[in-house]
Amino acid sequence: MKDIDSRKKALICARACQDKKAKGIVLMEMKEVSNIADFFIICEGQSDKQLKAIADNILEKLKNLYIRVWHIAGYEEAKWILLDYNDVIIHIFCKQMRSFYDLEHLWSKAPRSSL
Q: pLDDT per residue over 79-111, tens digit each?
């Protein structure tokens, strides 16, 4: 399989969030403001089950494309699940954690689009 560029990978992840009815999906282009990753995706779910379902859907979609996750954090607690694919990092929050950490404000200079 051909390599998938980071933009296409980010869009696949964002659509996987949409598939599971994630709220407030934001795609942030990080290349110009940080070397952490090319893209952040931020979204939220209504329950721990939904947060896990969103994460599982992303993991499955990318696994089907032979793309493996580099690191997963917060899955068991399901308050803030982080999926790190090196060039794309997905943040799946419960509402309270998203508001508390406010990554959109922290990275306010990053170009973004809402889905």
A: 999 999 999 999 999 999 999 999 999 999 999
According to the 3-state scheme, what is the secondary structure of 36-81? CCCEEEEEEECCHHHHHHHHHHHHHHHHHCCCCCCEEECCCCCCEE
Q: The pTM is what?
A: 0.93
| Contact yes or no for 35/110 (Cβ under 8 A) | no
Edge-to-edge strand list for the sheet holding 23-29: 71-73, 80-84, 88-94, 39-45, 23-29, 112-114
Neighbouring CB atoms inside 10 A of 40's CB total: 22
Helix (H, G, I), strand (E, B) or coil at 33: coil
Task: Tell me, rounded to whole angstroms, the distance of Cα 16 from its chain centroid.
Answer: 9
CB 29 within 8 A of CB 110: yes
